[in-house]
Amino acid sequence: MEISYQIKYLKKRFPLRISRGTRDGQHNLFIQVTDNGLTGLGETSPGASEGAATAELAQESLVKFLANPHDLNAIFSTYDKAIEAKVAPCALAALDMALWDLKAKKARMPLYQMLGYKKPSKATSITIGIMSPEEVKERLPLILEQDAIRTLKVKLGNPAGIEADKAMYNEVLNYHKKYPIAIRVDANGGWSAKDAKHMMGWLAQRNCDYVEQPLKEGEEEDLPYLYKNRALPIFLDESCRFASNIPNWAHTVDGVNMKLMKCGGITGALRIIATANAFGLKTMIGCMGESSISIAAGVAVSGALDHIDLDSHLNLNPDPCTGAPLVDEVITPLEIAGHGGQFRTDL
Ligand SMILES: [Mg+2]
């Protein structure tokens, strides 16, 4: 198999602010794996907590791993060897999704079908970064009217404190009177245990469905305190990277949010889905700053999940790739062989 790499800049339409900082764009790594005239495509959205802070470091991590011979047709054992060799999970995600794309292209099937999952039918949420009430007033009409989106994921955990969170959330809630919107909250670990308890009670009275990552990664010892008599379901994101993390927290949370960049791709996601189901947890898929290629790979497993948050490609200007269109609020797989993600040829 032949492997080639390419780094592309992805510029965001609107900068995204979360509890840890703001981003207006980034360089992603793209990988092409070619065998017998067919090419599988993969993508890394780099991140320090996903093992490689830059696209260059992600590429280095893969080049080093692939310098040794591996049977790339054996995807599960390639994944296990890469994890053992400490390949950055976000770099492995690109290789792994490219290998699954190639396998599905060889089988001439859409990847979601080859994996045995249903065609996704659940609406994606659109993420609203931390912003002032005035900014909410500018942004929300665009999302609700132009894009006709009805599920919002609101980022809280404002470093300015929970009063700033409440002011922003109240502004979002004003739109609930006009549109039948569903709202989830992601604190990205921006709350103390005490604030989290308070905010969960406050949000439960204000049309919020669940909260994601209320506590900082590493502060999971406070989860039992939050879980007991909780006013809202708790989902973990940063605290749950691989299927192997799930047994640690399964009895103190309601669900987990998987991301291909955290778990190392489709193979890691398959294991998270199986483990979460075994523990009776709800499942969700989210994304980092990914184009349509990586989002299309996520879509291949999303028919098996309870909540979908695959929206990063919709906030690119331009998205250099296609293959994960928004159709009636659902990020929908193309009915073509592979995961469906492709490079745009018109740019
Ligand atoms: Mg999250």
From TrEMBL:
Residues where Mg(2+) binds: D186, E212, D237
Cofactor: binding comment: Binds 1 Mg(2+) ion per subunit.
Top-rank EC class of the record's enzyme: isomerase
Cofactor field: Mg(2+)
The family this protein is said to belong to: Belongs to the mandelate racemase/muconate lactonizing enzyme family.
Gene Ontology biological process terms in this record: amino acid catabolic process
Catalytic activity, EC: 5.1.1.-
Record-linked SUPFAM superfamilies: Enolase C-terminal domain-like, Enolase N-terminal domain-like
Keywords: Isomerase, Magnesium, Metal-binding
GO MF annotations in UniProt: magnesium ion binding; racemase and epimerase activity, acting on amino acids and derivatives
Organism, scientific name: Croceivirga radicis
Cited InterPro entries: DgoD-like, Dipeptide_epimerase, Enolase-like_C_sf, Enolase-like_N, Enolase_C-like, Mandel_Rmase/mucon_lact_enz_CS, Mandelate_racemase_C, Mandelate_racemase_N_dom
Chain ranges passing through the membrane: none
Gene3D superfamilies (alphabetical): Enolase-like C-terminal domain, Enolase-like, N-terminal domain
Domain Mandelate racemase/muconate lactonizing enzyme C-terminal: 133-233
Protein name as it appears in the record: Dipeptide epimerase
Pfam families per the UniProt record, alphabetical: MR_MLE_C (PF13378), MR_MLE_N (PF02746)
Residue numbers annotated as active site: K155 (proton acceptor), K259 (proton acceptor)
